[in-house]
Specification:
Elements (H helix, E strand, L loop, with lengths): L1 H24 L3 H5 L7 H13 L4 E4 L15 E5 L9 E7 L2 E11 L2 E5 L8 E4 L3 E9 L5 E3 L3 H12 L2 H14 L1
Antiparallel strand pairs: 1-2, 2-7, 3-4, 3-7, 4-5, 5-6, 7-8
Amino acid sequence: MALKAFITRVFYWLATPLRRANRRKYADPEADTLLRRELPNEAFLPVVCSYVAKGEAAIIWVKGYSMRPFLEHLRDKVELSPCTDVQVGDAVLAEYAPGHFVLHRIIARNGNELTLRGDGNLQGVEHCTLADVRAVVTKYIRPGGHVMLADDPKLIRKIKRWVHLPVWMRRLYLFIYRQTI
């Protein structure tokens, strides 16, 4: 345990300049002037799902850390659109239990049964059906307005590489990533 604490301190000390630079890099000057209200997911996401069900696209802020390193908590936004056909590798908004929503990636599909997992989750998975999928992510929106389409071949290659990394390597990468953000 002492070795883990020592390695953590060393990485934290080495990454301190990077942490400060990233805070400045991702600081949004407009966010300080805009009034921002946060609602619990149980209240907000059903409204978003109703808009998406009508055929409209919705843009929401990402909350949570389970989709690291591709999506960051309250830094990135995603555009949700109605889903017609979902495939393994797609990020979807699913209601895996009544009133419980999750924005995770499909890692396996067996007919109508889907297995979901966040990119930053190393072991935990959720199970749902195609009927539980409320929307699919079509765009990733980064600070400064940089937009990446979900079907961009370069992004798809990065995601495939990430998913196929051994768990110990993803764990190490996420550790370093958390220390540098």
